[in-house]
Amino acid sequence: xxxxxxxxxxxxxxxxxxxxxxxxxxxxxxxxxxxxxxxxxxxxxxxxxxxxxxxxxxxxxxxxxxxxxxxxxxxxxxxxxxxxxxxxxxxxxxxxxxxxxxxxxxxxxxxxxxxxxxxxxxxxxxxxxxxxxxxxxxxxxxxxxxxxxxxxxxxxxxxxxxxxxxxxxxxxxxxxxxxxxxxxxxxxxxxxxxxxxxxxxxxxxxxxxxxxxxxxxxxxxxxxxx
Length: 226
Prior knowledge:
By secondary structure, the chain is an alpha/beta fold. The longest helix is centred in the first third of the chain and has 21 residues. It contains ten helices and six strands, in the order βαααααβαβααβαββα. The protein has a six-stranded parallel β-sheet with strand order 3-2-1-4-5-6, sandwiched between helices. The radius of gyration is 17 Å and the shape is globular. The protein folds into two domains: 138 residues, 3-Layer(aba) Sandwich (Rossmann fold); 79 residues.
């Protein structure tokens, strides 16, 4: 595999993480899942979503499925009320890019180190406002370009969003690495666009698979050095 010259990052669950208190505001605090429970739901949803994407049979979006499972777990604990309406509000909150503002310690420093060796950019399925969120979180200036599906009009894994980002960076696909957290969206989308790819797998969904994967930016740096 040739050494990449360009690294394109996903945002959600890669650079920035959920503000779960904001996302889960429609639920009573006693029904908010722990981080461990949230990640277990994430692993379950990714497996189901990947299978649907690969087979061409996806009935609902990722976060609709995720929050459907969450509401099923809450129903099992005696929660009353209109579950569908609450689920839809949870999905809306999760798709609001402003609620993805949790940044892991050392993220800026790791990006600054990577920026010394690679040109960095972002490709995100978002609502047209991810640039502002990245800047609010202090890392917007780390990237030479930010490609947002809400502006481009195509979502990953559609090749058009990858092509738009590559054009903006004047980058050849073979010289470019994509880092994202969902196999069927990020890894498959990027590799079909001719890019290299590695999964950013904090929740451990793909630990038993053979795909290139890392669980932190520090691990990404070590993976690149190999």
